[in-house]
Amino acid sequence: MTDMSDEEDANARAARARQGSPFLSPEQAAFYLSLSLRTLQEYRTAGTGPVYRRHSRHIRYHIDDLDAWSRGVGEAGDDA
Prior knowledge:
Layout: H1 2-19, E1 23-24, H2 26-33, H3 37-46, E2 53-55, E3 58-62, H4 63-79
Antiparallel strand pairs: 1-3, 2-3
């Protein structure tokens, strides 16, 4: 039950971010992409994930970059 509450909270935060700031936290970005936070972190470390920015000490993902990365991953997967 706690997991659903956390998921609903992340979903609500992502929806608010979509309406307001286009920049999402790593947690919001992972939820938006249906990835675990750890997977997104691993992609970032390997340089294979979506473009990210550092705002001060915070990592942020622009929602357009997430969409572009997601489309690119889908296209690359179709070739395999």
